[in-house]
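Notes to self after the Tuesday call (sharing in case useful).
The group wants a holo model before anyone commits to mutagenesis around the pocket. I volunteered. Ligand is pyridoxal-5'-phosphate. Logging inputs and output together so the record is complete.
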Amino acid sequence: MVTTPDYSIGEKSAVAFERARKLMPGGVNSPARAFGAVGGTPLFIEHAEGPYLFDIDGRRLIDYIGSWGPMILGHAHPEVIEAIVKAAERGTSYGAPTEAESELAEQIIAAVPSVEKVRLVNSGTEATMSAIRVARGATGRDKVIKFAGNYHGHVDSLLVAAGSSAATLGVPDSPGVTSGAVGDTIVLEYNDCEGIRNAFSEYTGQIAAVILEPVVGNMGCVPATAEFMKVLRETTAADGAILIFDEVMTGFRLSLGGAQQRYGVTPDMTTLGKIVGGGMPLGAYGGRGDIMDQVLPAGKVFQAGTLSGNPVAVAAGSTTLRLLRDDSPYDYLELIGERLENGLARAAAGAGIDHQVQRVGSMMTLFFNPDPVNNWTDADRSDRDKYARYFWGMIGEGVYLPCSQFEALFLSRTHSEAIIEETISAAEKVFQSLLD
Ligand SMILES: *Cc1c(COP(=O)(O)O)cnc(C)c1O
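Result:
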């Protein structure tokens, strides 16, 4: 399906990938990095600075993935790096409490409306896995609703994306995930209010939690409608189910308080990752105090971690959140986001290409799709082949986009207005080349 890129990548990356493939499955430590959705060989990175990635062949690229979300301040922000170095000099892990953990917890609680108490973990996956367990423990119920096209990390019970608008019980997406692990997972279509109401009338009193990305990044950028949010909040509250916003991607990105602050909808629990660690491995889950007090040792739901609250990761996260609070980037990100959105849309329209540019703040996707994308069924109709050619064309112009039609691009505060203009000019050129 995917065209092989005519753009030939650097020799050193090709050699590095050969070596890596003998050592690691597919040559990578996380599958998206292998460029499977666009074909060709991944670029190996040597270093990064501000809005740029530098590959091992000495090429400089404008980076629109920002490590898939965390780098909202740009790469290697001097104050974040300094905090990391200073923390490391005091020792890299103690397995005992620190005041810095309370400092970060205070910052999270102050910023995110739904969070009264929080637990730090090591990744977004750990955050969602733990939140589901706590929701089940707190409600004494088993079933969980998720939405097709929403990604919550590689948690067994949530690795089900296949689904139709009917309330079907999940079938596993990955070998190794047992039908037992997903047997209590109900997959619904995103933005389908009727689907929610039907599931709650069919399984009244049995649903522990509904988990969703309040703005989806993981099928490309797809926002929840106001109506969908309202129905979710009302039905879960009426039934005593826990509403979990997975804000691993949107947290501290769509506003300091995440999507929940931007949309004015307060869930019962929230999962965080990516930006909260400032580029270090750190995640968090939090929510209502009575729910969080179910977690051991306050309560009985088990959840632990040798490196949780790691001082180096906490230093990076805490410094990042402080910089976001004290010098808000969100107006600027909105400005350049709008400019890029308009520029890409104009360039695609000028070339007569069917497209939708969908954006919320500093996350955005250009879908090669004639119709608006509101759910996975819509997203799935996008032209993946055209995206692959666009991706490689843009690499040729020095612009590094997400290597899949179904991922959002991210802006950082280091993306200058000149960089945005440069990107739009590159896209104009590339769209013309897609016509033949
Ligand atoms: C990235 C992501 C995760 C998983 O986080 P990891 O740190 O990769 O485990 C979970 N949920 C959402 C919405 C994400 O974007």
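Two things stood out.
The chain has two domains: 11-72+329-434, 78-326.
The chain is about 35% helix and 15% strand.
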